[in-house]
Design a protein that fits this description.
Blueprint lengths: L4 E5 L4 E6 L8 E2 L1 H15 L5 E6 L3 E4 L1 E2 L1 H4 L5 H19 L5 E5 L1 E4 L1 H8 L2 E4 L6 E3 L16
């Protein structure tokens, strides 16, 4: 059962991957969500698509970023490395898909959401009043760990 992602394909071979974290006001990346994204990208890699659109089902928010409650207690250097590396590997899969990828940003795109959009080939930002793109983790003393600075 899907936790957060739903895939549809149009007749014209355009894939639509919709992020909708059920029972949450925002979309955020937790460990289970990242595991689901990892598996979803593996499945998508075998599809014959002309392009893939990545959308949010949340009005006014694309992706809020990582689940801060999961990372706030990471003090172990090795654990921090492993979490960061896993995110990089997943976003590298997105970057390496054999068809163009487009992040359709219709609202706030923060932290890990920004990093995910940077892993796409293209970013399309709407003029929604809440559309903002940022890496706010730097205000917490945290580097964008999933590729947002490379």
């Amino acid at each position: 059962m899907s936790l957060a992602f739903h895939f549809d394909e149009t007749e014209g071979q355009i894939g639509i991957l919709t992020f909708d974290l059920k029972d949450e006001k925002i979309n955020k990346f937790s460990s289970p969500v990242m595991e689901e994204l990892d598996k979803t990208l593996d499945d998508l890699a075998g599809k014959q698509l002309k392009a893939l659109l990545i959308l949010s089902a949340k009005d006014g928010i694309f992706i809020a970023g990582a689940d801060v409650n999961e990372i706030k207690d990471i003090y172990d250097e090795q654990k921090g490395y492993e979490v960061g590396r896993k995110g990089q590997e997943i976003f590298n899969k997105l970057d390496n898909l054999p068809f163009p990828t487009i992040a359709v940003i219709n609202g706030a795109c923060m932290g890990g959401g920004t990093e995910m959009s940077l892993a796409c080939d293209y970013r399309l930002a709407t003029d929604h009043p809440k559309t903002k793109i940022a890496l706010p983790e730097v205000n917490l003393g945290i580097l964008p760990g999933w590729g947002g600075t490379q």
